[in-house]
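User: Can you recover a sequence for this backbone? Please restate the input before giving your answer.

Assistant: Of course. Working from this structure:
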């Protein structure tokens, strides 16, 4: 496997008009990556660059028929021509990098600067005490005061005081240093189902993000994904209820001075 010393590999140098950058990594409930990948696929965006993973991700060695193969998470850029409404750069990554995070975020911003990106949008989720069948709220964080009012116009609730450690938050912080305006959207996911893909939360994000970007996206297929996930999420909700009861229910015999049966 040949490794280039260049951290970003360009297959194409597209000419873009007033582009915005939309970025997502694998995260809680699969929300960010699923939503942004759906947007990318529905718009028919074209791949044009990728980040070399070697400095940011450990290699995964898999063996098949006694042959070893190295694999890394994908980190790819795509572009979409907006036909006069402003173009998009879409970045999707399978996972957040566990190392070299500041450098990694800086590479994204280098691409943004190269193509004259005006605003960055990034998407993730956070656990909340909600039901999987309810309507998830979408919260927002920005790095510029006037973007808070913009988020509110689209039904996004500004997030209160909280410590954030995600790549999304790091990206916004570095972007602020470089005078790049950014919005970070976070959808609620049920606390009991953070390890399950939650398309309902992804759909809630897209219902906000698409109008913000001024694009039209058919969410019919996302609606089907919501319905398909319902059974698994309902089962997980039931399991979580039993786990809660098991953890906090006391054997009544303990109140009588011991767990063993009393002999008469």
């Amino acid at each position: 496997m040949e490794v280039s010393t260049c951290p970003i590999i360009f297959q194409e140098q597209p000419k873009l008009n007033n582009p915005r950058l939309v970025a997502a990594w694998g995260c809680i409930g699969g929300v960010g990556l699923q939503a942004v990948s759906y947007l990318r696929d529905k718009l028919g965006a074209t791949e044009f660059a990728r980040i070399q993973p070697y400095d940011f991700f450990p290699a995964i060695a898999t063996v098949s028929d006694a042959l070893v193969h190295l694999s890394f998470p994908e980190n790819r850029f795509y572009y979409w021509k907006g036909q006069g409404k402003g173009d998009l750069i879409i970045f999707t990554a399978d996972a957040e990098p566990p190392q070299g995070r500041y450098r990694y975020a800086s590479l994204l911003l280098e691409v943004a600067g190269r193509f004259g990106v005006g605003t960055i949008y990034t998407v993730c989720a956070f656990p909340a005490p909600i039901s999987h069948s309810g309507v998830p709220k979408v919260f927002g964080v920005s790095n510029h005061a006037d973007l808070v009012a913009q988020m509110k116009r689209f039904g996004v609730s500004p997030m209160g005081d909280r410590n954030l450690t995600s790549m999304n938050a790091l990206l916004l912080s570095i972007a602020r240093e470089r005078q790049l305006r950014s919005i970070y959207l976070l959808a609620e996911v049920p606390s009991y189902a953070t390890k399950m893909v939650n398309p309902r939360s992804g759909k809630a994000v897209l219902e906000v993000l698409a109008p913000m970007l001024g694009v039209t996206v058919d969410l019919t297929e996302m609606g089907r994904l919501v319905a398909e996930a319902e059974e698994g999420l309902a089962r997980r909700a039931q399991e979580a209820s039993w786990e809660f009861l098991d953890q906090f229910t006391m054997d009544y015999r303990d109140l009588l001075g011991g767990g063993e049966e009393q002999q008469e």
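That completes the design. Residues 8-248 form a domain with the Rossmann fold fold (CATH 3.40.50.10900).
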